[in-house]
Write a structure and sequence with these properties.
The complex is a heterodimer of chains A (623) and B (441). Chain A has 623 residues and is an alpha+beta fold. Chain A folds into three domains: 347 residues, no CATH class; 154 residues, Immunoglobulin-like (Sandwich); 53 residues, no CATH class. Chain A has 13 helices and 26 strands. The longest helix of chain A has 24 residues. Chain B has 441 residues and is an all-alpha fold. Chain B has one domain. Classes of the chains: A alpha+beta (623), B mainly alpha (441). At the A-B interface, strand 18, helix 11 and strand 26 of A face helix 4, helix 13, helix 15, helix 16 and helix 19 of B. Chain B: It is found in: Endoplasmic reticulum membrane.
Chain lengths: 623, 441
C-alpha cells in the first residue's frame, strides 16, 4: 500500500519532464460573450491544447487528452471532427453564425474524419472507421456506433482538411451523421473530462448541464488536426474543444429553487396601450424591448471559479474573456481581485472588452444592468437556406431547398451536400434549380454534381452539388424522392413519429479560392458553413400487431389456390350416376363387408376352423 | 354510319386497331397529366417496371454511371436505348393484339394433334379476342402508365404466336427476350415448348388423319412415329435455343454496361424482394410482416409454389397445350412478387382464347361471383390505398385486405378456367356426359 505513491511519483513527473522538452505543449481557453437581440445571449467557449507529434507518438501527453489520443492512434485517424448539436440558429434576428459555421454540426451527432487507408483496400478503411465510431461512442456516451455503412458517406467537395497532412500519406475522408441523437448531459461530462481543468476552474466552470442543455441553440465540437510548418516538419497535434450556445437570458435567470415559469401578477405586466381593446381589466402584454440585465452568476448559475492558468506565472498576461457590448451599455465588474478589462472601441458604436481572470481562489463575475436599447445583431449572414419536403396526396414528394443570397454585391459559389437514408430514394433526373428572383439571371446554375445512389439496406445516397448564386438571387433546388416501405422490424419503437433526415450541409467557398493567384495555403481564407434544419420524414407504416394474422391469411389464400388447382389437375371426372353411393349406411355396410373379408382371408386353416365353429355354434343354439 | 358498318364488315381488324390507337392517343392529348398520374400508381408501376425508375436509370446511364449500382433501377439493360414514348407503347399494344388475333385464328386453342374440342364451333372471332385485349380497361391504363412489363407481355405473346406457327427457334428466342426483360416468363418455358412441339407434329398427324376415312380427326389414330420429331430431341433443341438466346442477350448487355452488376440487380430483385412497395399481389405485406429468421424460408416456399404449377399443367393439359400456357400465365399474374394490373389485364384478355369453354365455366362454376369481386376490388383498391397513405384514416390492413380479395377472385377465375378446359376434354371422350353433373374422384 505504501509503495503506491512511490510508483505514482515518477509517473506524474514524467509528463512534466517531457513537457519541458516539448515546445508545442500549450493550452489556451477563451470565452466570447455577445448579447443578441430579443433578450438572448451568445456564449462561445473554446479550449485549445497542442502537443508535439513526437510526444504524441511516444504517448506522452500533458494537455492533450490521453483517452482520445489513444483512440486516434489505434484507428490511424489523422484528423477528426465531432459535433453534437441541437436547436436552431435564428439567423434572421441574430445575424451570421459564430466561427463561420465551421464549429457547428447538424442536429444530433455528426462525425467526419480523415483516416489512413488506401482506396484499394476499403475493408481496412471500414475496419478503422468502425473502430473509431465504436470507441468514440464509448468515450462520449453517444450512439455513434450506429454510424454504420448506411450512414457513412464519402463527400468530395464539402469538406477540406483543416490541418496539414504529409504527402504520400493519403488519408481518406469519411462522414457520418446521426440526426436522431438526443444530445444531453451524459455527452457534456466526458467532454469536460478531456479538459486539463475538467470544469473545476477557468471558464469551463460555467459549463453546467442544466444551463447548457436549456439553451435555444447549442453545439459542442471537438476538432483534432495536425499542424506542420511549411516544410512539413516540426509537426504538432492540436485539439480544439468548442461549446457555442445561445441562451434565453430571461429563462436562464429563473431561480433554481423555483424553475417553473409562472404568470406575473397583472401589476408587473407592461401593457400595450395602443390596442383598441386595452382597458382597466384587459391587458395585451407588450413585447419585451431593450436588453435585459444579466450577470454570469445569474445566467450560468455560478461565477467563473478562478483561472485555469497551467503555465508558470511569467507568461504574458492573457485575457480569456471577451465581451461585445454597445458602447453606451455600462458593465460592472463584480470580483474584487480581478483587474479591469481592456477596452477596444469598434466602429458602429460597439465596444469589445477583454478581461483577465483572477488566480484560483478568487471568482470572476460581470454584470450588465438592463438597458432600453437592444443590442445590435451580429454581421448579416452570407446566405439564408431552408429545406422542406413538399408533396402530399397524389403529388409525388419533393425535397426542396430554398437558397437566398441577401447580399447586394457579393456573388456566392457554394457546395451543397445532402446525405439521405436508403429508404428515401432520390430521383436525380428530376433535379432542378429554379430561379425565383430576377436577380439570378442566367448565371445561377449547377456546375458540378456528384451522386452516389442508395443501395437497399447497405448504403445511403449522397448528392453533392457545386452551384453559383449571384447577388440578390433566391433559387430553389428541388428533386423528387420516393419513400420506401420497410420491414416491420426496421421501424423504430415510435414508428409514427417519423424518421429524422440529416440537414443539408452548405459550404460557402471564400472568394480567394476562386481566384487562382491567391490560392496558396498560407493566405487561404476559410470557407464558411451552414446547415439546414433536419427533416422529419413520415413513412407509411404497416400494422405492427398483425404478423401472425398476415402470415395466416396470405398462406390461406395461397393454399386455396394451390389446393383448388391441384384438386382439379390430379383427380378425374366421373358422372354422378357412376359414383359409388357414399351415404352413411352404405359406408358402414362396406366397412363390415371389408372386415368380414379380411377375417375370412386370415389363412386357409383358420378360415376352415372359423367356418366349423360357426356351424358348431349354430347347432348349439338349435340344440 | 353506313360506311362504318361497311368498314366493320370488310376490315374489322383495321377499324379496331385504328380506333384503339386513336383512343390511347386522344386520352393522352385530352388529359396531358394522365400518364404521369398513372405512372405513380402502385397498381400499375412496380419497382421492377416503373417508368419513373426507367427515366432515372436512363439518366444515370447517359451520364456514364452504372445504373445498377443502386437500389432504384432493376430493369433490363436493352431498354436503356432511349426513353420509350407513348406511341411506342401504343404500337406494342396493337402488335400484341394482332399476335393474339393470329393465335386465335390458328385454332391452337381448340384443336391439337390428338384432340379437337367438341365445342370448337363456339370459339370467338379472332377480332373479338383482339378487342378484348385492346379495349380492356386494365390494358388501357397500363399502356398509359408505361411500365416496362408491357415489353415482357409483348414478347410472351410473340413467343406463343411463333409457337402456334411451329417456329421453334423464333418462339424460344422471343421467350428468352421476355425472360430477359422480366424474370418470370421463364416459367412459361415448358408449356410454350409443348405447344410448339404439338404444332410441329400437327401437319404429320393431319396427313395421317386425311389418309384414313376422314372421320378420325380428333380421335386417336395410328401415327407413324418415325414421321414425327422425337419429343426429347425437340425439347433439348428448344431449351438450347432458349439458353443460347439468353446468354447472347447477357453478353450484349455486358457490352453496353461497365459491369455484370445488372444480373443480380435485375434478376435477384424479384427473388429476394428487397423493395416492399405495396402492389396488388400477395408478397409485399407478407414479407413486411415476416419475422427475419423465416424470411428466406418463405421466399423459397413462395417461389417453389410458383414453380410447382408449370410441369403439372403440361402433363395434365398435354392435349391442349395452349390452355396450359394460358393457365400458367394466370399463375404468374396472380402469384408473381411484383404483381401489377397490366399482367392481370393481359391474362384476363388471353382467357378469351379459350372462349369455346366459356359455356362450361359460366354454367357450372362461380364466374359471376369472381367477376363481381374483381369489380369490387377495382373500385375499393385505390380508395383504400388513399385512405392508408394520404388520408391517414385507414391503416395498411385496408389495402392488404383488398389485395387478398383480388387474389381470391383471380384464383376462382383460374380454377374455373382449369375446370372448363378439363371438362371439355373429358366430354370429348364421354359425349354422353355433356350437361350432366359430374364428380371428381
Amino acid at each position: 500500500m505504501k509503495l503506491q505513491p512511490l510508483f505514482a511519483l515518477p509517473a506524474t513527473l514524467l509528463p512534466v519532464v517531457f513537457a519541458a522538452a516539448d515546445p508545442h505543449a500549450a493550452y489556451t481557453e477563451h470565452l466570447d460573450l455577445h448579447p443578441l437581440p430579443d433578450g438572448h445571449l451568445y456564449a462561445g467557449f473554446n479550449f485549445t491544447a497542442t502537443t508535439s507529434h513526437a510526444a504524441y507518438e511516444a504517448q506522452h501527453f500533458r494537455y492533450f487528452p490521453r483517452s482520445l489520443a489513444q483512440i486516434l492512434q489505434h484507428t490511424r485517424t489523422a484528423e477528426l471532427h465531432l459535433r453534437f448539436a441541437f436547436g436552431r440558429w435564428d439567423d434572421e434576428s441574430w445575424g451570421a453564425r459564430p466561427r463561420g459555421g465551421r464549429r457547428e454540426g447538424g442536429t444530433g451527432a455528426e462525425l467526419w474524419a480523415w483516416v489512413d487507408g488506401e482506396e484499394d483496400h476499403p475493408e481496412v478503411l471500414e475496419e478503422r472507421w468502425g473502430g473509431l465510431v465504436n470507441s468514440l461512442s464509448g468515450l462520449f456516451c453517444a450512439s455513434l456506433n450506429f454510424i454504420d455503412g448506411t450512414r457513412t458517406t464519402r463527400p468530395v467537395l464539402s469538406f477540406e482538411p483543416e490541418g496539414t497532412h504529409k504527402h504520400g500519406n493519403e488519408a481518406q475522408l469519411l462522414h457520418g451523421t446521426l440526426p436522431h441523437e438526443v444530445v444531453c448531459t451524459e455527452n457534456l461530462t466526458p467532454f469536460l473530462k478531456l479538459l486539463p481543468c475538467q470544469g473545476k476552474a477557468g471558464i469551463s466552470s460555467l459549463l453546467d448541464g442544466h444551463k447548457v442543455f436549456d439553451a435555444n441553440w447549442q453545439t459542442m465540437a471537438i476538432d483534432v488536426r495536425p499542424l506542420c510548418n511549411a516544410k512539413g516538419e516540426d509537426c504538432a497535434l492540436e485539439i480544439q474543444q468548442t461549446v457555442d450556445m445561445v441562451l434565453d437570458v430571461e429563462r436562464s435567470m429563473r431561480p433554481s429553487h423555483d424553475p417553473i415559469p409562472r404568470p406575473l401578477p397583472i401589476e408587473q405586466i407592461e401593457c400595450d396601450t395602443s390596442k383598441e381593446y386595452h382597458s382597466d381589466d384587459t391587458c395585451y402584454p407588450q413585447a419585451p424591448s431593450g436588453a435585459p440585465g444579466w450577470s454570469l452568476r445569474k445566467v450560468f448559475g455560478q461565477p467563473i471559479n478562478g483561472n485555469c492558468d497551467l503555465e508558470s506565472a511569467d507568461a504574458t498576461p492573457n485575457y480569456p474573456i471577451t465581451l461585445h457590448v454597445p458602447a453606451d451599455h455600462p458593465v460592472e465588474l463584480l470580483s474584487s481581485a480581478s483587474l479591469p478589462g481592456k477596452e477596444e472601441k469598434m466602429n458602429l458604436g460597439s465596444t469589445i472588452i477583454h478581461y483577465p481572470l483572477p488566480p484560483h481562489p478568487h471568482t470572476f463575475d460581470i454584470s450588465l444592468p438592463p438597458h432600453p436599447q437592444p443590442p445590435e445583431p451580429r454581421n448579416p449572414p452570407l446566405l439564408h437556406a431552408t429545406r422542406h419536403l413538399t408533396g402530399h396526396g397524389l403529388d409525388p414528394p419533393i425535397l426542396t431547398t430554398t437558397l437566398s443570397n441577401p447580399s447586394l454585391s457579393k456573388n456566392l459559389t457554394l457546395t451543397y451536400l445532402d446525405t439521405l437514408p436508403w429508404f428515401l430514394r432520390p430521383y436525380i433526373h428530376t433535379l432542378r434549380l429554379q430561379r425565383l428572383s430576377r436577380a439570378c439571371g442566367d448565371s445561377a446554375e449547377l456546375q458540378q454534381l456528384f451522386y452516389t445512389p442508395a443501395r437497399d439496406r447497405e448504403r445511403g445516397s449522397k448528392i453533392e452539388l457545386l452551384l453559383h448564386l449571384p447577388a440578390g438571387c433566391t433559387a430553389q433546388l428541388s428533386y423528387g424522392v420516393e419513400k420506401a416501405v420497410l420491414r416491420y422490424a426496421e421501424y423504430p419503437p415510435d414508428a409514427n413519429r417519423g424518421f429524422d433526415v440529416a440537414g443539408g450541409i452548405i459550404k460557402i467557398l471564400p472568394d480567394s479560392l476562386l481566384d487562382e493567384q491567391v490560392n496558396n495555403d498560407s493566405k487561404r481564407e476559410a470557407a464558411s458553413y451552414l446547415r439546414t434544419p433536419p427533416l422529419l420524414l413520415p413513412l407509411p407504416t404497416p400494422d405492427f400487431s398483425m404478423p401472425y394474422n398476415v402470415i395466416i391469411l396470405t398462406s390461406t389464400v395461397l393454399a386455396l389456390g394451390f389446393g383448388s388447382v391441384f384438386n382439379l389437375v390430379v383427380r378425374r371426372f366421373v358422372l354422378v350416376e357412376e359414383v359409388p353411393a357414399a351415404g352413411l349406411p352404405t359406408r358402414l355396410r362396406d366397412a363390415v363387408r371389408a372386415l368380414k373379408l379380411r377375417l375370412s382371408s386370415l389363412g386357409g386353416r383358420s378360415g376352415v376352423e372359423g367356418k366349423a365353429g360357426r356351424v358348431a355354434g349354430g347347432t348349439t343354439v338349435a340344440g | 354510319m353506313n360506311t362504318i358498318t361497311k368498314v366493320y364488315a370488310d376490315h374489322p381488324k383495321t377499324l379496331l386497331f385504328s380506333s384503339a390507337a386513336a383512343l390511347r392517343i386522344l386520352l393522352v392529348l385530352a388529359f396531358p397529366a394522365l400518364p404521369d398520374l398513372l405512372t405513380g400508381r402502385v397498381e400499375i408501376s412496380s419497382p421492377v417496371s416503373s417508368f419513373t425508375r426507367l427515366q432515372e436509370g436512363l439518366f444515370l446511364y447517359q451520364r456514364g454511371l452504372d445504373p445498377y449500382d443502386g437500389g432504384i433501377f432493376h430493369q433490363s439493360p436493352t431498354i436503356l436505348g432511349r426513353l420509350p414514348t407513348i406511341l411506342l407503347y401504343t404500337a406494342l399494344d396493337i402488335l400484341s393484339a394482332s399476335n393474339l388475333c393470329h393465335i386465335a385464328a390458328s385454332g391452337a386453342a381448340y384443336a391439337s394433334r390428338s384432340y379437337t374440342s367438341p365445342r370448337h364451333h363456339r370459339h370467338w372471332n379472332p377480332v373479338s379476342v383482339a378487342a378484348a385485349y385492346l379495349l380492356n380497361p386494365l390494358t388501357l391504363l397500363t399502356c398509359l402508365g408505361r411500365p416496362t412489363s408491357v415489353f415482357a407481355i409483348f414478347f410472351v405473346i410473340l413467343s406463343v404466336r411463333e409457337a402456334c406457327r411451329a417456329r421453334s427457334v423464333t418462339s424460344a428466342f422471343a421467350l428468352a427476350l421476355a425472360s430477359y426483360v422480366s424474370l418470370h416468363p421463364v416459367l412459361l418455358l415448358p408449356p410454350v415448348g409443348l405447344l410448339c412441339y404439338d404444332r410441329v407434329c400437327l401437319p404429320a398427324t393431319e396427313a395421317a388423319g386425311r389418309g384414313g376415312d376422314g372421320e378420325t380427326k380428333g380421335k386417336k389414330v395410328a401415327i407413324d412415329q418415325r414421321s414425327q420429331p422425337s419429343g426429347l430431341g425437340f425439347g433439348l433443341i428448344y431449351l438450347a435455343t432458349f439458353v443460347f438466346s439468353v446468354a447472347f442477350l447477357f453478353v450484349l448487355s455486358r457490352l453496353l454496361l461497365p459491369s455484370w452488376n445488372f444480373i443480380p440487380s435485375v434478376y435477384l430483385t424479384p427473388l429476394t424482394l428487397p423493395d416492399l412497395t405495396p402492389n396488388p399481389g400477395l408478397w409485399w405485406y407478407f414479407f413486411i410482416e415476416m419475422f427475419d429468421a423465416f424470411r428466406n424460408f418463405f421466399l423459397g416456399v413462395f417461389w417453389l409454389h410458383m414453380l410447382s404449377y408449370s410441369v403439372p399443367f403440361c402433363l395434365r393439359l398435354q392435349k391442349q397445350p395452349l390452355a396450359a400456357v394460358v393457365c400458367m400465365m394466370g399463375i404468374i399474374a396472380i402469384f408473381e412478387p411484383y404483381a401489377n394490373i397490366g399482367e392481370v389485364g393481359f391474362w384476363l384478355s388471353s382467357i378469351t382464347l379459350l372462349s369455346h369453354t366459356f359455356e362450361l365455366a359460366s354454367t357450372h362454376r362461380y364466374t359471376f361471383a369472381a367477376l363481381a369481386a374483381l369489380l369490387y376490388t377495382v373500385m375499393l383498391g385505390p380508395v383504400f390505398h388513399h385512405l392508408w397513405l394520404y388520408a391517414g384514416s385507414g391503416n395498411a390492413n385496408f389495402f392488404y385486405a383488398i389485395t387478398l380479395v383480388w387474389a381470391l377472385a383471380l384464383i376462382i377465375l383460374l380454377t374455373d378456367t382449369v375446370y372448363s378446359v378439363l371438362r371439355d376434354e373429358w366430354e370429348s371422350e364421354r359425349p354422353e356426359g355433356k350437361g350432366k353433373e359430374v364428380r371428381q374422384l
